[in-house]
Specification:
The chain is of the alpha+beta class. The strands form 4 sheets. A 5-stranded antiparallel sheet has the order 1-10-15-12-13, with no helix packed on it. The protein has a 5-stranded mixed sheet with strand order 4-5-6-7-8, sandwiched between helices. The longest helix has 19 residues. InterPro entries: CRAL-TRIO_dom (IPR001251), CRAL-TRIO_dom_sf (IPR036865), CRAL/TRIO_N_dom (IPR011074), CRAL/TRIO_N_dom_sf (IPR036273), GOLD_dom (IPR009038), GOLD_dom_sf (IPR036598), PATL (IPR044834), PATL1-6_C_GOLD (IPR056794). This is Patellin-6. It is a peripheral membrane protein. It comes from Escallonia herrerae.
């Protein structure tokens, strides 16, 4: 059965030497062709009758931070259908093929696709290089030939199968996990672990270690590219989510430069959108200063999410069951080993509101397992089982407790001894802030005969 949800709303009175990661602003538009995201409709945090904070005179920093959150119109991902190209673009595509053929001294392929095969997959790749150079055929050919040479020297075609020995970084520093709402594979990047000097020295201590790390980072990207369709109308780019929390900017300057250079030169048009999360306040201020110098097209690729706003931002683009638990989602390592998981139900918890999720129709002997998360938590949560039989006592499965912002999704189960319903409660009456939330559950009937 679908759970019934009951809401009880209570309003409360209103209580009343930094460096930016420079490489972020060096991203070329050619690296990041964006698609339009699907956004959730967010509700007002309180009913209109609730008290409003006093109007305060905005200072300079506040104005800059607000400017940094403004969204420019999203640019739709470019078409790879030849029939949709302009006449000049069709001509450029054919010219690139002819010039590649005349200058070729052997088979040219990328990601298992022969570039001169004449099929639509080859056209997708060639169009990426053309768009990276604004359809200037000579520049596109030069970029393509350099990339082919680099892939051969780097042995990029076989890199996915290599064991580079970075087990400690898998699922932690850079990893592919899940898809966005439109089907793009998502790559997460988090370099905060390198604030530990011992870890930093172990990974970046000398040139050889740095080269090995760069090879591993390319391997992660190649794994993501293997998930792409390379087909007109298909999924032809990935999403990058970069966590700026605790990132040692100065120490990673050299590695960042190398990664950026490799990706820009050899993976054009492979990133649909870059989402920056746990962004410090000063980043937003500096971004607002830099943004006038960026093109509208480039700015549309960036999503800036301040600290404490991670889940709300990611839910706009990625379903909660695909967002890692450390970022306010329900996805845990190893989840897929238990088979396909039930999609999550999303809801919002307004400021001054308590939400009770009632899961009814639980039979005697059945086991109910649930996951629930609220972005940023900082509210009270509890779970209780309410028997159907008159006179039976309600059972406190999880007593009321304050859940801190740093806690991950709740995962629990309960075996009922009698028929009844489970009630999951989240109490946000002590806050004015609206929060995104998600839950899912599964009920397994008793196997006893």
């Amino acid at each position: 059965r679908r759970p019934k949800s009951s809401l009880s709303i209570h309003t409360v009175p209103f209580l009343s030497k930094v460096q930016i990661p420079f490489w972020i602003f060096q991203l070329k538009p050619s690296l990041m062709e964006a698609s339009s995201p699907l956004s959730l409709q967010l509700q007002d945090p309180l009913p209109e009758s609730s008290p409003k904070p006093h109007n305060l005179k905005k200072n300079f920093v506040t104005s800059l931070m607000e400017a940094a959150t403004l969204r420019t119109p999203s640019f739709k991902e470019d078409t790879y259908l030849v029939t949709h190209l302009k006449p000049s673009e069709k001509k450029a595509l054919q010219d690139l093929k002819d010039r590649l053929l005349s200058s070729s001294d052997g088979p040219n392929s990328m990601w298992g696709i022969q570039l001169l095969s004449g099929d639509e997959k080859a056209d997708v790749i060639l169009l990426k290089f053309l768009r990276a150079r604004d359809f200037r055929v000579s520049d596109s050919l030069h970029m393509l030939q350099k990339c082919l040479s680099w892939r051969k020297d780097f042995e990029a075609d076989s890199i996915v199968e290599e064991d580079l020995g970075f087990k400690e970084l898998e699922g932690l520093v850079a990893y592919m996990q899940g898809y966005d709402r439109e089907g793009h594979p998502v790559c997460y990047n988090a370099y905060g672990v390198f604030k530990d000097k011992e870890m930093y020295e172990r990974i970046f201590g000398d040139d050889e270690k740095l080269k090995k790390f760069l090879r591993w980072r390319v391997q992660v990207l190649e794994k993501g590219i293997k998930l792409l369709h390379f087909k007109p109308g298909g999924i032809n780019s990935i999403i990058q989510v970069t966590d700026l929390k605790d990132m040692p900017k100065r120490e990673l300057r050299v590695a960042s430069n190398h990664i950026l250079s490799l990706f820009q030169d050899n993976y054009p048009e492979m990133v649909a959108r870059k989402i920056f999360i746990n962004v410090p306040w000063y980043f937003s201020v500096l971004y607002s200063m830099f943004s006038p110098f960026l093109t509208q097209r480039t700015k549309s690729k960036f999503v800036i999410s301040k600290e404490g706003n991670v889940a709300e931002t990611l839910y706009k683009y990625i379903r909660p069951e695909d967002v890692p638990v450390q970022y306010g989602g329900l996805s845990r390592p190893g989840d897929s080993q238990n088979g396909p998981l039930k999609p999550a139900s999303e809801f919002t918890v307004k400021g001054g509101e308590k939400v009770n999720i009632q899961i009814e129709g639980i039979e005697a002997g059945a086991t109910i397992t649930w996951d629930i998360v609220v972005g940023g938590w900082d509210l009270e949560y509890s779970a209780e089982f309410v028997p159907n039989a008159e006179g039976s006592y309600t059972i406190a499965v999880e007593k009321v407790r304050k859940v801190t912002p740093s806690e991950e999704a709740v995962h629990n189960s309960y075996k009922s001894k009698e028929a009844g319903k489970m009630v999951l409660s989240v109490d946000n009456t002590a806050s004015r802030k609206r929060k995104v939330a998600a839950y899912r559950y599964i009920v397994r009937k008793s196997t006893a005969i």
